[in-house]
Design brief:
It contains five helices and ten strands, in the order E-H-E-E-H-E-E-E-H-E-E-E-H-H-E. The protein has 266 residues and is of the alpha+beta class. It has two domains: 102 residues, Alpha-Beta Plaits; 138 residues, Alpha-Beta Plaits (2-Layer Sandwich). It is globular, with a radius of gyration of 19 Å. The termini are far apart.
Length: 266
C-alpha cells in the first residue's frame, strides 16, 4: 500500500492534558492520539498539528495530519480512533489530503473563542470552561477596545515571548457576544487571524476584561500597540476559558470544514 496523507479534525477537553504538543513525562493530546493511531494501524506515527494549545486550553476544531500506509478508509479511522481514545478526545472528521498538505503552514486563518462569565457568585458547572470573574460590564467600552485590535499591529505587549517571526501580526476580526443561558450571563470574545503569538489571546482577553469592568480605558489598547513591550498587557486570562474553534484552509478536500458562520468585526 502506498503512503496516504490524512487530515483529522479533533475535539478535546484540554483540562486533562499538559497541552497539545508531546512532552516527555507529561500527558498530552499528541501522545494520546499517536498511541491510539498506533493501536489502530499497527504503525508508528508522528502527527503534525495546526497549532499548539497550552495546558488547560480546549479545541473544537484542531486539525492534525498523519501519514500512513494503512488501507483503512477515513470512516474507519473516525470510528476506530474514537473507540480507542479516552473520553476527553474525539475525532470529528477525517479526510484524505494532498501529500504536501501541512496543517500549520497551509492554514488560512485560526479562530479562537474565550468564554467569560461575569457572575457575582461561583459557578461550579461553568468554571472548567470559563473565566468566572465578577464585574459590571460596560459593553460600549469593551467593544471599543476590541475594535482597536483589528488590523496589522506589533502585538509584543500582548504576548509572553516573541517567537521566531517577530511580533507583528494581523487581527482579521473580533467579536464580542453577550447572551444569557440558564439565568447566567456569558460573554464570548472571539478572535480570527492567520496566526497568533504565544499567549496572545489570553493577554488580550485579560486587557479587554479590565476595560470592560472599568479598570482601564479603551485607549490603552492604542498605547500598548504603539509602544510594544513584551507582556505589558493583561493580566493573562486563565487557560480554561480558551477554545481553538476552527482552522480554515483553501485545500479543496477540507472546504466544508470552513462552513461555520464567520467571525464578524466588532
Amino acid at each position: 500500500m502506498s503512503e496516504r496523507h490524512l487530515a483529522l479534525r479533533l475535539q478535546y477537553d484540554g483540562s486533562a492534558f499538559h497541552g497539545s504538543q508531546r512532552q516527555a513525562g507529561q500527558a498530552t493530546v499528541q501522545e494520546t492520539l499517536e498511541e491510539a493511531i498506533g493501536q489502530l494501524t499497527q504503525e508508528a506515527h508522528r502527527t503534525a498539528f495546526a497549532g499548539r494549545t497550552d495546558t488547560g486550553v480546549h479545541a473544537l476544531g484542531q486539525v492534525v495530519a498523519v501519514r500512513t500506509r494503512s488501507a483503512l478508509p477515513p470512516e474507519r479511522w473516525i470510528r476506530g480512533l474514537n473507540h480507542l481514545l479516552p473520553p476527553q478526545v474525539a475525532v470529528q472528521d477525517a479526510r484524505e489530503v494532498p501529500p504536501d498538505f501541512d496543517p500549520r503552514r497551509d492554514a488560512r486563518s485560526r479562530t479562537y473563542r474565550y468564554d467569560w462569565c461575569p457572575a457575582r457568585n461561583r459557578q461550579p458547572l461553568l468554571e472548567p470552561r470559563a473565566w468566572v470573574f465578577a464585574g459590571q460590564v460596560d459593553f460600549p467600552a469593551l467593544r471599543d477596545g476590541a475594535a482597536r485590535l483589528i488590523g496589522e499591529h506589533d502585538f509584543a505587549s500582548f504576548c509572553a515571548k516573541p517567537g521566531n517571526r517577530g511580533t507583528v501580526r494581523t487581527m482579521d476580526a473580533v467579536e464580542v457576544g453577550d447572551f444569557v443561558e440558564d439565568g447566567v450571563e456569558r460573554i464570548h470574545l472571539t478572535f480570527r487571524g492567520a496566526s497568533f503569538l504565544h499567549h496572545q489571546i489570553r493577554f488580550t482577553v485579560g486587557q479587554l476584561v479590565r476595560i470592560g469592568i472599568g479598570k482601564a480605558e479603551p485607549a490603552v489598547i492604542d498605547r500598548l500597540l504603539q509602544e510594544p513591550v513584551i507582556g505589558t498587557a493583561g493580566p493573562k486570562a486563565p487557560a480554561q476559558g480558551l477554545v481553538l474553534v476552527r482552522v480554515r484552509y483553501d485545500t479543496p478536500e477540507l472546504a466544508d470544514w470552513n462552513d461555520d458562520e464567520d467571525v464578524r468585526p466588532v
